[in-house]
Amino acid sequence: MSQTKRIGILTSGGDCAGLNAVIRAVVNAASRLGWEVYGIKNGTDGLTERPLQYEILTVHNFSDTPWPRISGSYLGSLNKGVKMDSLEEISKRFGEGAKTLGLDAVVVVGGDGSMNIVSNYCRNAGIKMIGIPKTIDNDTPITEFSVGFNSACQVCTSAIDSLDATARSHNRALILEVMRRAAGHLAMHSALAGGADVCLVPEIPYTIDGIINKLRDIKTSGRNHAVIVVSEGIKTEDGSHVTGAKNIIGENVYGGIGQYLSAEINKRYNEFQTRVTVLGHIQRSGIPTSFDRALAAVFGAKAVELLAKGENNKMVVWEDGHVVPYALEDVVKQGTTLLNTNSDYVKAAVSLGMYIGEVKK
Ligand code: F6P
Q1: Helix, strand, coil tally for the chain in percent (to 5)
Q2: pLDDT tens-digit readout, 125-172
Q3: Residue 137 catalytic?
Q4: 319: helix, coil or strand?
Q5: Of the residues 12, 73, 136, 247, which should be mutated to test ligand 1's pocket, given the most ligand atoms within 8 Å of the CB?
Q6: At a CB cut-off of 8 Å and minimum separation 6, what does 144 contact?
Q7: Is the domain defined by 151-284+341-351 classed in CATH 1.10.287.1080?
């Protein structure tokens, strides 16, 4: 049995629905073992900035208020890139912060980027870490599901339902731009659920003519409306980024592909009026679905169980209906999980007659 007595928990990266349910689960499980839980504020900033930003959490924080039922992060989160050349310096501050608070281990609730960055901090600082995957993007490696994805899909699906209703009234092809830079899970899942006519994801090349052919078919069949779902990460037809904007570490900033598609479709085909909805950050803050709340509960309980067994450097993973630990090293090595273009999701979309780009038949 490990001697762990005081652990930290932090949420890192873009927020999503279900984070508070994760925090609740960790606090409850740890409290049952008599451990103290320090909630680290604003992602890793809580330990790297001075003064340290934290709050001691007890079961009352989450039982006396409805926090687990609402989205956002009780602790705050941080979605900013970190320059790898500053890693050593930040790890040092992170480690000193954790030592000042007397933390034996940190539970990190984050996506692929956070698992990579924070596991580096923890390793350099000699602090135990257990990761819990969360992201609306569902692209954290190995795990089949991350907390927040299901809730974001629900938001996107409701948006498709709403767009479908107004598209019918106005003879329109309505374009919905959803999040996630390089991975199309959110777009594909929602398009299937909402019955979209077109779904474009970064993993599959498309042509404007392909979209227009689909719209023509719809018109010929006597239908006067269509819904097009597009992942923010797709490029223009000739393979360039719509916006040249970059974030502080030189990564592309997305947004605008919906307007580009609208303009391109209109240039070549005008049987449908097009309009664009950019769903934006609403996707990150829907009501946590029952699936995400339950996932949060099992991930949180497992994370504490692993720490109690003395485990370190692991991420909990949903695999075939079970929660299992995987080495963080292996998770990080895999990078981002993209949509499998041979998956049953993709096959189902094709069989529904959706245009999803130029898929190999
Ligand atoms: O990774 C989560 C995510 O919501 C992505 O889907 C999106 O591209 C990105 O974060 C947006 O980040 P920010 O809120 O920092 O602009």
Answers
A1: 40, 20, 40
A2: 999 999 999 999 999 999 999 999 999 999 999 999 999 999 999 999
A3: yes
A4: strand
A5: 136
A6: 317, 318, 319, 320
A7: no
